[in-house]
Design a protein that fits this description.
Blueprint lengths: L1 E5 L10 E5 L9 E8 L3 H8 L18 E8 L5 H8 L3 E4 L2
Antiparallel strand pairs: 1-2, 3-4, 4-5
């Protein structure tokens, strides 16, 4: 299990709760990142507020966030060579959409 911030309905920051969620497994061509730091992207605020429902519908509970930094801790078959190299060397990565 992993720890994540989540929300179960549209609204303000008071709706965020600390949740225990299943640790995801990477699918074909993907890597899993052990997150060390996150940031609040303005799009996350808009999604949580419900301002993006027509463009970005979500299912609740929702774990927001797309700006992360961490270490690749698992790579699935078909992951790009650069991703696999980062995995072998416990390389640090950042994901910013």
């Amino acid at each position: 299990m992993s720890t994540a911030m989540s929300f179960s309905g549209y609204g303000g920051p008071e709706g965020l709760t600390v949740s225990r969620v299943a640790t995801p497994e990477p699918g074909p061509g993907q890597v899993r990142i052990r997150v060390r730091a996150t940031a609040v992207n303005p799009i996350d605020v808009r999604i949580r507020a419900g301002a993006m429902q027509g463009v970005f519908p979500v299912e609740f509970p929702m774990v927001p966030g797309s700006d992360v930094a961490g270490v690749v801790d698992k790579a699935a078959e078909g992951a790009a060579a650069s991703d696999l190299e980062a995995h072998r060397n416990q390389g640090k990565v950042a994901l910013i959409p």
